[in-house]
Design brief:
Number of helices: 6
Strand order of the largest sheet: 1-3-2
Largest sheet: 3 strands, antiparallel
Shape: elongated
Oligomer: single chain
Length: 170
């Protein structure tokens, strides 16, 4: 059973299924048709989504209907937002040392250069201007912004969560 939500949503077919379920509950056959995929493939991905808590299922006659669960996705969106906020504050604090040619904070040093390596140890760095560290910072900022925007878009396009009354079957 896959419990890492990021591993679950990393697969494009599962993301496509989640997009289809934004509009409301769908039967497996409807998903097969919408995704132009085989029934075993869709069923396999639905099982992974169900095990991760991203979808729920209900039987109605011989059909199984799947519905999207928002809570796990809200957690992903919250995590991305906190990452963006943390990265932004780290980048602001790192701008002065990088410009002065000092070493970057450990969080800013690429893995290939080694933790705590001076900025001049990075390939192509002009130690006087700190140009390469500034490029890395801008790249990190853009990547985090794109990830946060994508998560926010997915969450914004999800239907509003409707709580079912206790004891009421749907």
């Amino acid at each position: 059973m896959v419990t890492d939500i990021f591993a679950v949503i990393a697969d494009h077919t599962r993301r496509d299924i989640l997009r289809e379920l934004r509009a409301g509950d769908k039967a497996v056959g409807e998903l097969v048709e919408a995704l132009d995929a085989s029934q075993p493939t869709v069923s396999k991905h639905l099982k992974v989504l169900r095990d991760a808590g991203l979808v729920t299922t209900r039987a109605q006659g011989q059909k199984r209907y799947y519905a999207l669960r928002l809570e796990p996705l809200a957690e992903v969106g919250g995590w991305l937002t906190s990452l963006r906020t943390t990265a932004g504050s780290q980048l602001e604090g790192a701008a002065a040392p990088a410009a002065a040619g000092d070493s970057l904070p450990a969080a800013q040093v690429p893995a290939a250069a080694g933790v705590g390596a001076p900025s001049s140890a990075l390939a192509g760095v002009d130690a006087a201007s700190g140009t390469r560290p500034q490029q890395i910072q801008r790249s990190v900022e853009r990547t985090v912004e794109r990830a946060a925007k994508g998560a926010a878009e997915i969450i914004a396009n999800l239907p509003k969560w409707r709580r079912k009354e206790p004891g009421r079957q749907g």
